[in-house]
Amino acid sequence: MLIPPVALNLDDLNEPQRAAVLHDGGPLLVLAGAGTGKTRVITYRVARLIEGGVSPDRILAVTFTNKAAGEMKKRISDLAPGAGSRVWVHTFHSFCCRLLRRHHEKLNLGRHFTIYDEDDQKRTIVEAMKTLGLEKEKNKAGMYVHIISRAKDDLLDAGSYKIHSDASPDPARQTAASIYEAYQRLMDAAGALDFGDLIMKAYDLLRNHEDIRKHYQGFFQHVLVDEFQDTNRAQYGLARTLAAEHKNLCVVGDDDQGIYSWRGANIGNILEFEGDFANTRVVTLEQNYRSTPQILEAAVSVIHYNRNRKPKKLKTDNAAGEPIETMELPNEVEEARWVVRRVAQLVEAGRGLRDIAIFYRTNAQSRAFEESLRAARFPYRIVGAMRFYERKEVKDVLSYGRAIVNPDDTAALVRIINVPPRGIGKASLDRLSHDARESGMSLWEALKVAPGLSSVSPASKRAIQRFVELMEHLRSQAASRPPCVALETVIEASGLRVWLEEETKTDPEAAGRLENIAELVNAAKDYELRLSAAGEAADLGRYMEEVALQSGVDSYDESVPAVTLMTVHLAKGLEFPVVFLTGLEEGLFPIGSNAAPKDLEEERRLCYVGMTRAREKLYLTHANTRRIFGHVFASLPSRFILESQLTQGSPVLPSRPVRSPDAAPVRSLAAMRVGMRVRHPSFGLGKVTESSGSGKDARVMVRFDDGRTTKLLVRYAPLEPA
Question: Looking at residue 590, what DSSP letter applies?
């Protein structure tokens, strides 16, 4: 297919951006500070390659969310009309899906393998525990999901993990290895892959099949990876393998925004990239286009305290804005009320609700803000809370779809076998599941032979027979139909619609569940139309994959007129005119009372991410006390608040006195008298101008020689007589 010639205008790019876009070839590391236009660089670089004669089909651009991939594809299409749809723009997981579907037979996979989410993984872990006689530990299923996922991130399959574990004296490690092996056997029997499998098996495909590896190494002339600081070992290994021949690997990221080590990301990938690739060209983007100087200076001041980072000097030409406002509140309830009062003032002054975001460190903190926003009658939406596709009735319909596409999908069958209720007892299902495991059959195969088994009650046999007939009917009627028609068939033929309509007579929430399954059909239709516009056909299997690869941030719609609530982790990649960064207390943010140095650095990066989401106004709040498990605990302000004030000119406006949480106490409180010269390790020399309170509440006002005036709580302030 011919595409119109591309004629790029690079006048809108600054010098470093232009250098990255015009880089001819070979390894390229783009260190893109917060708000410096990294997406612009990637999309312009792709368009520039196409302008230079590279076929768009031979370019692979990988990022981490569907939302980011969609934005990237749109921008490429704007710059290079007709080419955007041909560039391989994917998330890591969707790219690996595409490879595995195309070459599934090489790995003994069914073409319609199912992708298990975390809930499916937990169910499978519990089944694995049963085979090992560990049912009593089923409450630890989430922990083992984490262990297995991290092992796969490090390219350790069940066999490799067991070899490592056998050499370990830790019995818990050996138990984990046994559970991993049993879990993987069940996954293989179900024809299912988890998210870790998608990357690891794609990597194995390239590593173990030379013909396929050589094909893709020759096919992709350029590989670009966005958010490179978030890659794990498996993802980096995949990218390195694809670029091994031509070395045209462009990675873009910011080590100061590496905040996902808990889910396997290795910040060493970006810090050590130059050592992995000889003659790497490094371009550093330092011109911030997002935030006011006050916000940027404070954020830079915080991240400056990290040692394990690449040096950057972020700057902005944006007009000066308001000072950052820091507020100390008595407790988390008052913190939420104060934030909502500020929201009301902002709205009265003309701000739109969609301009405002409230960030917190943990999901549990959202409750107080939700209650205050409801009391004030402000609409709000929580990003990352239960997603549409995670709602029970939606997952029920989707599980029917999964079982139609892949009959061996045990997790899907277990979910739907009694939805609507069919009278198949738990005891009968447990016996069938046990028989299936013992005989090496899938659950579906066991269900088909159940009517001939003496271990199943006559009533259950009849119910199972009807379920098998239903699934075979759905498979013949829906499997080859468009997703919208297939799901409508499921909802009607399964009896789900009638069941939910009956439920509305006694359960007011059932009406909402009916609306949700209707909306699911709408979503499937939207998917069909989207593919049709791109000249592609939609089928049920492909739609199941699309849904499985959705993430929490993908559902964020910035046009909704509501205050946005989210954890700081989910905020990366977004920006708002006004941001409230809340719960800035030692032990909460940074989380943990005795964080290791590397963990503290990640917490500081997380704070930096939160601060740099703000364009015009930033509030930092903390509470003196916080209720945890029903008990009230005293809190100290986060060290990040103090660190944010250590820039020249002090862009932070404390609304209440700010304390330094990790400083050594002054030896003699009596020595801190008005007129005395003192020394602070960060502020330098100064003079005490006021004193108030006594004992543990003693405070002093100090005017430092650089003109800064700060009130400090004496017992925590690192002051010494000068």
Answer: T
The residue ranking higher by pLDDT, 58 or 645, is 58
Residue 553 CA to residue 535 CA, distance in Å, equals: 27
Q: How far apart are CA 400 and CA 475, in angstroms?
A: 10
365 is catalytic: no
Whether residue 227 lies in the annotated active site: yes
- Tell me the Cα Rg of the chain: 29
| CA–CA gap between residue 430 and residue 421 (Å, rounded) | 16
Among 153, 197, 226, 355, the active-site one is 226
| Of 197, 227, 255, 328, catalytic | 227
pLDDT in tens, 660-692: 333 333 334 456 788 889 887 656 788 898 887
**Which residue in 201, 613, 615, 699 is the catalytic one?**
613
- State pTM to two decimals: 0.81
Higher pLDDT: 632 or 186? It is: 186
Concerning whether 488 is annotated as a catalytic residue, the answer is: no
Q: Is 709 a catalytic residue?
A: no
| Catalytic option among 17, 36, 38, 639 | 38
* Phi, psi of 711, rounded to the nearest 5 degrees: -95, 135
Coil/strand/helix, residue 353: helix
Cα 452–458–462 angle (5° rounding)? 80
pLDDT tens digits, 414-428: 999 999 998 887 787
Place of tokens 């499937």: 524
**Residue 539 is a catalytic residue:** no
SS3 537: coil
Active site residue 38: yes
pLDDT at 653 > cutoff 70: no
Give the pLDDT score at 668: 44
